[in-house]
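Fold these two proteins, one after the other.
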Amino acid sequence: MKELNCDYLIVGAGAAGCVVSNRLSQTPNNSVICIEAGGKDNNFYIKIPAGFSKTVYNDKINWPYYTKETDNTANRKIKFPRGKVVGGSSSINGHLYVRGQADDYDGWAQKGCLGWSWSDVLPYFMKAETRPEGNKSFRGNQGPLHISDLTSPHPLANLFIETAHSIGIKKNTDYNSGDQEGSFLYQTMIKNSMRWSASDAYLKPILSKKNFKLLIKTYLHKIIFKNKKIESVIIKQGLNFKKILINKELILCAGAINTPQILQNNGIGNQLKLKELGIKCIENIPEVGQNLKDHYAIRIAMRTKNVSTFNTESKGLSLFKEIFNYYFFKKGLLTNPVSTAGVFAKTKKELSSPDIQMLFAPASFENENAGTSGLEKLDGITCGITQLRPSSRGYVEIKSNNIYEPPIINPKYLDNDFDKETLINGVKLVRKIYSSKPLSDFCEEETIPGKQISADDQIIDYARKFGSTVYHPIGTCRMGNDPNSVVDLDLKVRGIKNLRVIDSSIMPEMVSGNTYAATNMIAEKGSDLILNSFN
């Protein structure tokens, strides 16, 4: 068996792994290897902002996972894709850049995660980004991530914002300031009208470095321990196996699904369950794979009148015009992400901060699951609604000692009355916007779910039958200062001498909105923690 050697081995070239690879390789004396199960990010649709529908469910560039059937999802298996390609989910996601609320991170600190408050993490958000027009007190202008505004927002997106304002929802000039509440056009990870993924920002600039090596289509097969220290790992490339000796640390950046799967398959988890599967327990940490949270969304669609939407603008001669505009002028429909306008709002006046997120698109779809269906022939609009901080907690558990078998994924959506009530109130607020001027002048009738779905129990029944993930799993390797947490405040796995987790799985609680920005921040801060520990 061939052998390789490195100081740091990073598992996963995704949203976090690309960052950690870049930052650790900046020190010339560090030898860094990053392994990625997927291939190159050269799929045609990855770069086009409007290509989301062609990437997120493409089995060639994602792990085609499904959730476990539960009563709360009408016994459906819900598609649960995760990026399996260089750049990870940042190469297949909807481009939206959302940091969350200052209260999210202050809440982490109040739970014992000292060093992770808003004031602690803000410098890492700023370090990561280039946003020259932003306020210098909370926006960066020299980082690898290019955070842009929409170049060609649809008129209906601005109309949605104006209508939200008319019913008392303020306009927010920068929802990433820490004060999230209001209506806005989404900020995006798009540069020169093309996707700007973690791979573009962090990985591609270091591929020629002598102290860095990227291995694609490479799986972590087995971790080899000696006295609770990782000595080496076995990797699998096609039918071939290689050993990689690790001088300093193994860093798992495989995400909220694959990271706990890797730990469990290698003997780190609940010792009773591992024993049942014939896996030797290296370290008993029952919370590995627990505390899974995700954003669950439903959609409300309207048939429109007196205005064109993406439905007709993406067909026939209009589509050829849009392709021409994109390739020659970098503008038009194809420059738009999955959602263009949004709202963070309170569903109750007594709340101190927003509890729902709206994702508006000037398009309507053939059925309730917008992500898995094509556009309707007739013009329409859609607004997704999701609860920002769900109480429901699920789990990720392996089924066997075969590391290549997909794990059980059960987010336990709608597992309590609080989550159900928040979603009901969110639907009512979206409908209030739809029925208010000036947007109501262009709305003909509600097509999904339809005005006949009006009682609270009917709305929840609709949510059970047609709700879906917003692709934001977190928490399965919870960070904390208590002995039950999976990783400590330096992101070290408890009981193992040279193993860290740096990805969305370490979040102790859900952040308010899309999770890419927070994951990127965790990777920036985690890289510093590693570099400082070896200085």
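Now the second one:
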Amino acid sequence: MTGQRYLHFTVFISGMTTLAIELSASRLLGYVFGTSNLVWASIIGLMLVYLTLGYSLGGRLADRHPEEAVFYRLLAWGALTSGVVPFLARPVLRAAADAFDQLAIGVLAGSFTAVLVLFIVPVTLLGMISPFAIRLALSETDQAGRVAGRIYAISTLGSFFGTFLPVLLLIPLVGVTFTFLIFGGFLNLVALLGLWRRVGRAAALKRLWMPALLGGLALLWGQGNLKNTPGQVYETESAYNYLQVLEVGEFRYLRLNEGQGIHSIYHPEQLIYNGPWMQVLAAPFFNPAPYTPEHVESLAIVGLAAGTTARQATAAFGPLPIDGFEIDPAIIRVGETYFGMDLPNLNPIAQDGRWGLAHSPRRYSIISVDAYRPPYIPWHLTTREFFQIVYDHLTPDGVLVINVGRAPGDRRLIEGLAATIGTVFPSLYVMDVPDTFNSILYATRQPTRVEDFYANYQALQMQAEASPLLVSAVTRAIANLHPDPCAGAEPAAGCQVFTDDRAPIEWITNNMVLNYILGGGVEELQ
């Protein structure tokens, strides 16, 4: 390989590593801080600032020292600092994880900032590579445009591969830490080989300690736990999430990413957990009386997680067919291994819930939507167009159930979803789950009245064979019902309709959380 071709190869690998670091950074931060637009904006924004600094410094350095020895040494240091980032970040992230569990906002914000600052050195160094490579490749000034275009094209092509390799291949296979090590280590070897070829053997051998250091870190600390939460029995990383299984007494809990939400719960001999899962069971009883459990023929769950709702529905209604849409196959495997998700009537489907439901040939008695990445509900599951898909896949007496977050005194998200659902469904009801920040919205495909719910409840209480789980769910719903906030002559102020074109879900949620924190809500919880 000629010097020019090896330079192009180096630029390609550098571009690939730069994008891989950016995407891996989102996963490194995601298991503590989540993957909201706010986190992504912080990562992308600061990475662009670091690259801008690198472009400027790289151009200046190249003009002063247009030497391949300087170029490859620069690359070697960029590779080394890329590989050590997760090890430097690990103690900070563990402190942040503990702070998140205790809602220590100051420590959390400081940790988030500290981890992002860790990327300033590797990303800035890698940003210096492209302008430096242009200077090395430039032999005639009348070819400057062509040379610059070629270098940036090669770098961008490398970035294309760096976009997909970590997310689709390396992170699910070996985890975030080893992903950093693989990209950093390979780029480091490319730099040392460049030094060997273009400068001399001695220059490369002097820096063999760099890949040796990365290899040593991999052997000694590469397999350490990402979190050390009390009761942790399992953790893993998938293409979508960081997954954690906790065991407290005889209960098991599934937590994802930053861990502020319990996505599933399991007990081998108990099914009443007093959370939002059970409230799905109350949904069909909003239909006109008399309505009995035997009327429920099928269930779809958008956000299956580890199957808590599926187990409860099977206990309450019998072995009805259940389609469970869960975008992350790793969550399905965890459910089958740790949460007893082996029901013969359950069909787990590893697909995005909206896409899977839209392409399902079936109609369902109940469609449950509970796909939170706390504190955010995916915006594409909140729009008028999505609820039209739900409506079209319900039986004539079918009911939509959706779990919605709220803050004390702030019900804007509930109001917006109620207004949106109300453009598709004729009747809607709201209940607050006691001792939580969750509310459940029920929407019936046919026009109904709340009096029907009361009548069905009375009939259910008189059935000796009725499931205690079912009676408990309907009782809690009745005790905590609220009127539709967007019905009547004076709808609530937050009753805006969300569409695929405009659904400011994260903006509303961020504002709710910020107001709650500034209002002293965190101290109330501690």
